[in-house]
Design brief:
The complex is a heterotrimer of chains A (160), B (455) and C (266). Chain A has 160 residues and is α+β, with helices and mostly antiparallel strands. Chain A is 35% helix and 17% strand. In chain A, strands 2-1-5-3-4 form a five-stranded mixed sheet, sandwiched between helices. Chain A is globular, with a radius of gyration of 16 Å. Chain B has two domains: 48-143 and 207-296, Aldehyde Oxidoreductase, domain 3; 177-204 and 300-420, Aldehyde oxidase/xanthine dehydrogenase, molybdopterin binding domain (Aldehyde Oxidoreductase, domain 4, 2-Layer Sandwich). The complex binds flavin-adenine dinucleotide (FAD) and FE2/S2 (inorganic) cluster (2 copies).
């Protein structure tokens, strides 16, 4: 059970830890670095609860080995808010009642964030596509889709 | 959102502050920032991982269990078998005197469903636990399995669970839960038409996004703290106390936000064995179902078979109903005797029928034990009842909504299980639905009220 | 034993490491890490390479070369591969596409392997480190006997003529879901009739297959309802669709002619 060092930037801070070789980014974030915002819902790639961004790209942290992320920029939902000021997506998820148990929410928000960074004015079909790798068992997808569209509108008004 | 205030206007003061207003969830800030704490959002130094060795057979006798190779595997801290469990035989509802105890925490002499827990392996890492679990040898003698309600009730069927001695639960009222009201046979004799149909459903998994699990830490004061996502905290506390023969004050159960349950987290499956593991090793223990275990091993909604026979008049009145319901409990009771009982009380549905005879059976098969799920004992029955209601309306050439107005229960009607109807609002809901859906009904139905009978 | 990861900067070093027992090569890891998480004990060492050659996409008049480590996301982003975009987009959700590689897709069991179906209809060749180049159809048949040390470095193919290439994935969950079936076809026509056809099917065996019978039945005929009828019947020859959680073998067989017909006429 060899331990290997991993080092990357997590939500803007330099982090380094020893992890078991072959262990996942999800385990490193949750068990070693104290960022429990990504959730393990399946460890199979099918639920999306563990979704994070690696170097600006959406990834499933349960299927990504921690060692492959050396020197990467990792972002999670825990790093989205600016102090007490919520990210527009977080505000929209609150306003649109887009969460019930909340277990899918951090992954869902990362998937939506990746969309808005690439496409600030998505239509409904773009949103459906963007969250298609994320499962929600409580809320239903409609409020979630509405929240993402609401966040996009809020962004474009504040930019104007 | 729209509040329809014209109904029951005289019963209300309409001084609502909260109702009708959109309000944020109180826990939403934690959800959107990823700060809501679920049971697994904590780590402890020296945490052990529990991996369960499960039965690969639907029904088998255990001739022997050999854990010697597994014990020697690097990283293994402890192997737990049935003989380590202080009170291995249990049943959840014994707390409310619904017995007999019929299930083992870890299998002893037999396994009765594919997936039944047999041996618990504790190791330093999940991988080491997996590797050691693969080295546990269980010698099974495979027995014939009963995999459907029909097979289970055949006279020569193999017995699924010896603690019951027969493949159905024995209620104080006999081989099934019975409801008798009026005289169903007489009702059928006077009916213009009789319609008998059967309905069946398969098991349904809740599939919550967060799988079932718990983390247990032994505390310096001799207590055990159990962080769990159970939906039934006190059932879990009391059953763990019985199984572990440990006074309740030694068990500190900590709940919190559950990542979806839908009824799937009311059984007591992970906590007792994880607390026992923490006790035997003196170390923190994590026992979290894999996605495969959640789908395959956690209890689903029961499969059901429902036969409904109705007598109906040309004018739309249902005058007699007979229901035979069979609820597939799987191999063990869990909450199913209660679910079957609930179904018996429910079967007339929201309709007033003068002659009713209902038999609800809780049946044992060699399938995954079923348990609670959103309205269990009622939901599948409602599906059957409402399909049946449509068929009855079609049979006599009546509009299905008008047919429901004719049969809807009203305040003061006696229900078949001898509960007088109070606060009914079915008529008013259907009136509103008729308007919103653009499905007009005759004016006399729009004048009906749940509070009084016309004429 | 535990698990360990070995990373090599060149494909040849990685290939050398693959010879040992208990070793599995990892591309994007969507299937390999999933297997680890699910308790697959058949390997305890994972090998990967960061060789930039495996992540390259080259398009020229001579043909197209796509490195084995190229992800579905990279295919989607490449302007010269727009005809392959529907196939790349068919693989999983957005996060999976940023991880899933072209090389790994060649090994994915049904109902996966959608991108491979497209490559098969393009008559792609596979470069296997140590064994040279082989036709994809032959590679798929021999894949399991090539041994654990066979490392795919790239796939090559000729770009299809404008509008000759068609791709269809049928799934139950939209827009993302495992395939009921997948069909790719490269159809060339002259003077109102088909002169050349390559049709590949996914989920009609445990891996992607070509339907030579349907191809032969199409050549020389017009792409009309009557013209394609013999091909739709011929497509059922020699198929052995799997039964899984998505669909039964019976269902897959029943709907194949329907979807093939729509793809050919559309
Ligand atoms: C949630 C989810 C959804 C998915 N949906 C789809 C889908 O819709 N369609 C689809 O086609 N697939 C799907 N997949 C399967 C898989 O993601 C893809 O097939 C992907 O292309 C596999 O590539 P990979 O790089 O991730 O493979 P890996 O997991 O890295 O490898 C898979 C296998 O191929 C071998 N291998 C990989 N690269 C090479 C190489 N260069 N040389 C030799 N051997 C190699 C590995 O040893 C391993 O045995 C899905 C997977 C998940 C988890
Ligand atoms: S935990 Fe990673 S996709 Fe479900
Ligand atoms: S809110 Fe519970 S899974 Fe989405």
């Amino acid at each position: 059970m060899a331990k290997v060092p991993v080092q990357f930037t997590l939500n803007g801070s330099e982090r380094a830890e020893f992890v078991e070789s072959g262990s996942t980014l999800l385990a490193a974030l949750r068990d070693k670095m104290g960022d429990t915002s990504p959730k393990g819902g399946c460890l199979q790639g099918t639920c999306g609860a563990c979704t994070v961004m690696v170097d600006g790209e959406l990834r499933l942290s349960c299927l990504t080995l921690a060692e492959t992320c050396n020197d990467a920029q990792i972002r999670t939902t825990a790093g989205l808010a600016n102090g007490e000021v919520l990210h527009p997506l977080q505000r929209a998820f609150e306003d649109a009642f887009a969460a019930q148990c909340g277990f899918c929410t951090p992954g869902m928000i990362m998937a939506a964030a990746a969309l808005l960074e690439r496409n600030p004015n998505p239509d409904r079909a773009d949103v459906v596509e963007a969250i298609s790798g994320n499962v929600c068992r409580c809320t239903g997808y409609e409020p979630i889709i509405q929240a993402v569209l609401l966040a996009a509108r809020a962004n474009s008004t504040s930019a104007a | 959102m729209k509040l329809s205030k014209s109904y029951f206007a005289d019963e209300r003061t309409d001084d609502f502050v909260e109702i009708g207003q959109p309000r944020p969830r109180s826990d939403i800030r934690g959800h959107v920032t990823g700060r809501t704490a679920y049971f697994a959002d904590r780590t402890f130094p020296g945490l052990l991982h529990l991996k369960m060795v499960r039965s690969p057979h639907h029904h088998a006798r255990i001739r022997g269990i050999d854990t010697s190779e597994a014990e020697k595997h690097p990283g293994v801290a402890r192997i737990i078998t049935a003989k380590d469990v202080p009170q291995n035989l249990y049943t959840i509802l014994i707390l409310i005197q619904v017995g007999p105890e019929d299930e083992h925490v870890l299998a002893e002499d037999k396994v009765r469903w594919k997936g039944e827990a047999v041996v618990a392996v504790l190791a330093e890492t999940a991988r080491a636990a997996e590797e050691a679990a693969a080295k546990v040898k269980v010698d099974y003698e495979v027995l014939p399995a009963v995999l459907s309600i029909e097979e289970a009730l055949k006279p020569d069927a193999p017995i699924v669970n010896e603690h019951h001695g027969r493949n159905y639960y024995l209620y104080d009222s006999g081989e099934c839960r019975k409801v008798r009201f009026g005289d169903a046979e007489k009702g059928f004799a006077q009916a213009d038409h009789i319609l008998e149909e059967s309905y069946s459903s398969g098991p349904i998994e809740h599939a919550p996004l967060e799988t079932s699990g718990c983390i247990v830490t032994p505390e310096a004061n001799g207590r055990f703290t159990c962080y769990t996502n159970t939906q039934a905290m006190f059932f879990t506390l009391d059953n763990a106390s019985i199984i572990l023969q440990m006074p309740g004050h030694k068990l500190h159960m900590v709940g919190g936000t559950v990542g979806g349950g839908f009824g799937g987290k009311v059984d007591v499956t992970v906590e007792p064995v994880a607390i026992l593991a923490a006790k035997l090793t003196g170390r923190p223990v994590s026992f979290i179902y894999s996605r495969e275990e959640e789908m395959q091993v956690s209890s689903p909604r029961a499969a059901e078979k429902i036969v409904i026979k109705d007598g109906v008049m040309k004018d739309g009145r249902i005058v007699a109903r007979q229901v035979m319901a069979y609820i597939d409990a799987g191999a063990y009771s869990r909450h199913s005797p209660y679910g079957a009982q609930k179904s018996a009380a429910h079967f007339p549905g929201p309709y007033t029928i003068p002659n009713v005879a209902i038999d609800s059976y809780c049946v044992y098969t060699n399938r995954t034990p079923s348990s609670a799920m959103r309205g269990f004992g009622v939901t599948i029955g409602d599906f059957a009842l409402e399909v049946q209601t449509d068929k009855l309306a079609r049979l006599i050439g009546m509009d299905p909504l008008e047919f429901r107005f004719i049969n809807a229960y009203r305040d003061g009607d006696m229900k078949a299980h001898r509960q007088p109807t109070e606060g009914a609002a079915l008529i008013e809901c259907m009136q509103e639905a008729s308007v919103i859906a653009g499905w007009p009904v005759d004016e006399r139905f729009m004048k009906m009220s749940s509070q009084t009978r016309e004429g | 034993m535990g698990m360990s990861l070995q990373t090599f900067s060149t494909a040849s070093e990685a290939q050398a490491a693959l010879g040992a027992s208990g070793v599995r090569y990892m591309g994007g890891g969507t299937l390999v890490v999933r297997a680890v998480n699910e308790g697959d004990l058949s390997f305890s060492t994972i090998v990967r390479t960061t060789d930039p050659a495996l992540s390259a996409i080259e398009t020229s008049d001579a043909g197209v070369r796509v490195g084995a480590s190229v992800t579905m996301g990279m295919v989607l982003a490449h302007p010269g591969l727009s005809y392959l975009a529907p196939a790349a987009r068919a693989v999983g959700g957005p996060a999976v596409r940023n991880m899933a590689t072209v090389g790994g897709n060649l090994f994915a069991p049904a109902p996966y392997g959608d991108f491979t179906v497209a490559l098969l209809a393009l008559d792609a060749k596979v470069s296997v480190s140590g064994s040279g180049e082989m036709a994809l159809e032959a590679f798929l048949q021999e894949r399991d006997s090539l041994g654990a040390s066979a490392l795919v470095t790239s796939v090559t193919f000729a770009a299809p003529a404008t509008d000759s290439f068609r791709f269809l994935k049928v799934s139950r969950v939209h827009p993302k879901g495992a395939a009921v079936l997948t069909i790719a076809a490269d159809i060339r026509e002259e003077a109102g009739s088909v002169v050349q056809a390559r049709i590949a099917l996914g989920c009609m065996a445990d891996r992607a297959i070509r339907t030579h019978a349907a191809e032969a039945a199409l050549v020389g005929r017009p792409r009309t309802k009557e013209g394609i009828a013999p091909a739709l019947t011929a497509a059922l020859e020699g198929i052995d669709p799997p039964t899984d959680a998505i669909a039964s073998a019976w269902y897959r067989r029943e709907v194949l002619p329907v979807h093939l017909g729509r793809l050919l006429l559309g």
